[in-house]
Every structure is written in C-alpha cells, then in structure tokens.
Design goal:
Number of helices: 2
Oligomer: single chain
Structural class: alpha+beta
Helix content: 10-25%
Number of strands: 5
Radius of gyration: 22 Å
Strand content: 25-35%
Strand order of the largest sheet: 2-1-4-5-3
Order of helices and strands: HEEEHEE
Shape: elongated
Amino acid sequence: MRVRVAIVLLVYVVAARGVGNLYPLSSFEMYGSTRLTTASRIAVQTDRGVQEIERFSRWRCATPPSVDPRICLAQWPYFHVEARDREVLDHIRDAADPGTDAQPVTVIRRVWRLPADGPAVASECVLAQCEAAP
C-alpha cells in the first residue's frame, strides 16, 4: 500500500511541475516563490510592553483607530493582511466600555523590515490613544 501511495505522490509532483497550475494540479508557488521583505501587525503598547489587541476585551477610544495603511507613511510600503487588520478594528469597535478598570494604551502598527542579510528592524506607527481593560 505504501508503494502505491508513494507512486501516486511522485506522479502528482512530476505532473504538477510539468504543467504548472493547471487544475487539478498545482505546484503551489504562492507559498514560496516570493520572499517578503516587510511584515506588519497591529498591536497595543502598554506600560508592560507590546501585547496582542485581543488581550483586552473592553475598549474606549476618543478616535477609533484606522487600519488604512497610508496612515503610516514613514513606514510605507509594507506587507499587511487587510482581513486581520479589520478583525482588530472590529474587536476594538465592538468591545464594551472599560469602565473604572481602564488603563491608558496606545494602538500601534509595528512594521518589520526583513533584509536578506542581517536582523529584522522594527518601527512603530501610532494609530490611536485609547483606554482598555482585560
């Protein structure tokens, strides 16, 4: 049985390499053909450091943060996942009021530059000043 599976897998790989992306075969180059040189994520800066937005369930912002990537012009261009950015904004917008447990926080976008040689370099862009509570 293992021999049959190995043969089928080998035939699939050879066929996919030969025809490229002709349904139902694929070489899946979308996962490895382009090297990213930047990455970004929206997070929250507190007195304890940078944390995930979801660590806080209650939010109050005088001005809601925007996920428009053009806000961070000093860091532009950078890779971002628009769907994930919208999830973060929805989490903040739909949250209950933090009440008296509120602590001041800063919603930021952290952008990493990923050079081919050397360590990643991070920079931050402020998106909003808010209050949040766990």
